[in-house]
Fold:
Amino acid sequence: MPAFEDDPSIADEERLFRRIPRTWIDWDDDGTAAISSAAFKDEELSINIESIMVRDGRPPADAIRQYPGYGLAAITAAHARSLNQAVARDPIQEEPAHGVIYGQKKRGGIAGKLRDGASWVINPPPNE
Amino acid sequence: MATAATAELTLQERAILASSASATYLDHFSSTDRVLVPVLQQPVQVTRKRTYYSCGQAYTIEWQDFGQPIPAWFDPLVQGFVDLLTLPPNWNSYQAGTIDSQIVHDAMNFINGVLGPTSPAPRVVPLSSGGLQLEWHRQGIDLEVVFDRGERPFFYYKDRVKGQESEHSLPEDSSVLSSIIANLE
Structure:
């Protein structure tokens, strides 16, 4: 039995936020920040569920408030599901909006395909 | 003339002996080369040393070679490896552990044997699991060489223009990897 099963109450259009540290960012010559697939390789990939943050009156920026230098990326639940991933709620004490994108990502380029569907919600500060 | 080949050591003939704080980087002739090269034409080995800094720590790489130019990829690659060794616990804010120094050592040794003198330098990227991956994104190609805990290394190749992708085991498909990297130059 998998550790997490897909939760159909999480809508396909739900945005799932992932914090992106500088070590996972590559700036190209014109200053565009590209995300490494390494950011999406965990079998149990921690994310914040946007609707829970909205319910609690928290803006997206709250997800990186304690992490200077980070960017915040989002993929949709539909995109994760299209790559055979389960999307589940997993609230924890320090983060009620915590959720998990669960499934194998290391092989078959899955992590890169998750990354390809990501967009910046909050751009990381420029590389110094 | 067999002597011409001896001046052009391939990177596969280098070996890196590294610890978390220092490394020895050693060139050597193959036994065949030793036989074929006249004694007077053998180049002289010299000891070389470079120091890299990350998060206040110094890492010295020491090696012997024949004074040949250092490839352009060498410094950014080694700096990338050193930067991984100084990542603190929870470096990704999701409880990632530190990067396994043995994996760094193995990756350095392996990629040193695959890159050519004019190869483009890969990015060295940490994995939450304690492993690492080397990445090239050029000319519509995504290439990732993955070294991870408890797994054999492999590489993933994607040609975004042709819509092709494939995954290969290492070291079995090292020659395929070398060929792909050569085409990225």
